[in-house]
Amino acid sequence: MSLLDLDRLDNEPGARLVAESRAMGFSEAVARRGLEAELQAWSAPGALERVREELTGVDPERYPQEVLIIGAATLPVSTLRACLMARLLGARVRLKPASGLDGLAHAIAATDDAITADCFSSTDPESLERALGSVETIVALGSDETLLSIQRRVQPHQTFVGYGHRVSAAHLSQPDPNELDDLAQDLLAWDGHGCLSPQVIWTDDAPEATGRAVLEAVARAEHHLPFTPRPEMAHAHFIAEALGAMGGKVLKSATCTLVLSDDPAFMPTPGGRLVHVLPDRGAPWRDLGETLSTLGQSRRSQASPSHETTRRCALGQMQRPPLDWPHDGHPNLLPMLRPAGSSSR
Amino acid sequence: MAELRGELLGFIASPNADRFDGLALRVAQRQVETIEAYGRWVDHRGGFDHWTEVPWVPTEAFRRFDLCSESPQGTDTIFEPSGTTTGSPGRRRAPDMRLYEAAMDRPFVDAVLGGDASRKAWVSLIPESTELPTSSLSHMVSSLASRYADLEHSSWHLRRGGLDVERAAEALRATEGPTVVLATSFALLNLFDAWQGEDARLAQGSRLMLTGGFKGRSRTLDAADLERLIEARLGLPPEAIIGEYGMTEWTSQAYGHGVAPALQAPPWLRLRVIDPLTLQDVAPGQVGLVAAFDLLNLENVSAVLTSDLGSLDEQGRLRLHGRAPSARPRGCGLTALDWGTQA
Fold this sequence. Notes:
The complex is a heterodimer of chains A (345) and B (343). Chain A has 345 residues and is α/β, with parallel strands linked by helices. Chain A is built from ten helices and twelve strands. Chain A has helices at residues 14-23, 28-43, 47-52, 76-88, 102-109, 125-133, 144-151, 177-188, 207-222, 231-247, and strands at residues 66-71, 92-97, 115-117, 137-141, 159-163, 167-172, 198-203, 249-252, 257-260, 274-279, 292-297, 311-314. In chain A, strands 8-9-10-7-6-11-12 form a seven-stranded mixed sheet, sandwiched between helices. A five-stranded parallel sheet of chain A has the order 3-2-1-4-5, sandwiched between helices. In chain A, a hairpin with a 4-residue loop joins strand 8 and strand 9. In chain A, helix 1 crosses helix 2, helix 1 packs antiparallel against helix 5 and helix 8 (177-188) crosses helix 9 (207-222). Chain A is globular and about 55 Å long. The two termini of chain A are 22 Å apart. Chain B folds into two domains: 2-72 and 267-323, Luciferase, Domain 3 (Luciferase, domain 3), CATH 2.30.38.10; 100-249, Rossmann fold (3-Layer(aba) Sandwich), CATH 3.40.50. Chain B contains nine helices and 15 strands. Chain B has helices spanning 2-13, 17-34, 36-45, 61-64, 98-111, 136-148, 165-174, 185-194, 223-234, and strands at residues 57-58, 77-79, 92-94, 121-124, 155-156, 158-159, 162-163, 179-184, 207-211, 241-245, 254-257, 269-274, 288-294, 303-312, 318-323. In chain B, the strands form four sheets. Chain B has a six-stranded mixed sheet with strand order 5-4-8-9-10-11, sandwiched between helices. In chain B, helix 8 (185-194) links the parallel strand 8 (179-184) and strand 9. In chain B, helix 1 packs antiparallel against helix 2, helix 1 (2-13) runs parallel beside helix 5 and helix 2 (17-34) packs across helix 3 (36-45). Chain B is globular and about 60 Å long. The N and C termini of chain B lie far apart (52 Å). Mean pLDDT of chain B is 88; it is low at 327-343. At the A-B interface, helix 7 and helix 10 of A face helix 3 and strand 1 of B.
């Protein structure tokens, strides 16, 4: 597991991960901040041991020898974590990236001889069948539609783990300035992409007052974390901004857009630093059920998610999940094991 | 309002390009003043002095807001699109259909009927408006049929229950004189997929009006293959195929020849292709988002941004290049980024 040596991102192979993250459209600072957060999770004292505790009493015969990771356009850190978790089981990893992200797969593969980049076109069913057929365990990250289409191809003797559609939000109750600064970091991390990024900020104050306070905090942080809008997401951004302005109000900083509304119902966003600020009337987060991955909360927040799998964390930690965080409510290692009683060794 | 509508009816009757700018500005100003949500959007974007500066409204806004200047009445016509495969349907409330009715004839007669307005047999794979009253396409086709179809020898084969393949094929095989066939691409392909028995041989002078594209359907076909199939099944050469482009949110339609037509807009519809990032027009030949200023959307919003991708040629004709990816829920991924990079 040489990936754990990546505590520095200035030299190879870490520098290549930064470069490939930048190639995905993230600024150097955003890429570094995100990758550093992930590597810190792996190097935190006792982190590995806590994850491995899952395996207590498990027959090692059930460990898969090879795991296929299908990263359907995930954040670099999501793919990285999936690969590393498989490596914790001692499995070889074949990494199939989304089309256009071959560089990221090669960068991750360059960190560990047991990881191989398996790059083929998503529209090539034969290659997909070959890749799926050659492993015992398949881990897929992506949209629910993508997961379903992969799962349909999985054989009964294979293990499938899918990480699909989840959303995250923040709840503010009388936040102090430091907490707003922390929330700004959550908003700016990975430019608001990924399932851990807050799409909605619920507030017990007026949305406009909260929005203005959040925007001030964002303005303090954003010049350290540059952002360039991307053409491929501009349309969705425009739609969200138009709908926001037509139904309520829109506040903008240099790189961040806050859409304010008096309707508390959750609103998805396209990412790219566009977030909704909504009143918390009626505990609207409860409607999300297990779809709510993470709820970042100010200290005075009493918000209680409806589903036990929702991760509750302090502001500033939303995009920094600990290593033993049960992703989508599941253990990290156990779902990858072969079914009890099966063995290929 | 009545005065402006009268001027627009006059423009339809006698288009004068020099008058477009002035009318468009007045129409847009009126919409800003009378449609509250639109006014907020324009306030946010900072106003305009010319119709080309009017803030675009994405078609998605029609799903969320009642973008109509008039109070709801029981007599309003409500249009909802039927072809989209995701998301909630759009909706346009049209209190007055006079502009719509006045504008549809000439472009249709010129493009689809080749200027020959005599009544012909129609075979339609588009439902009648009585079958699908909220479909603007059905409304248009039914309205045109009442004026240009030989109703005694015309037939409709798509109903809520689905496409009556057998009867449609029979009707097409039984045609004698020049016939007008109307279909969405998807319905036509469904017909061909289920087609059994002899091919039809439509008489010379027959026309096929094709519309709708595939909009993310599981079954698609590229233009050349579809043209070959149409020629094989119906005996219609590519030059007898006319593409129609319209949408629930517009009053007007554009037409062009072939399965992948170069679409020509009528004088009251200005088609543009814009860069989604800058919202500025792209150069001819470059692909961007299709936007339109429909002068006749008087009670709704004229500056509409679609989710279609297109390019304009040097003559200002539009070619469509599919659909832009739409916002959708996020997995543990990149949302917008994964639009172009599906696993």
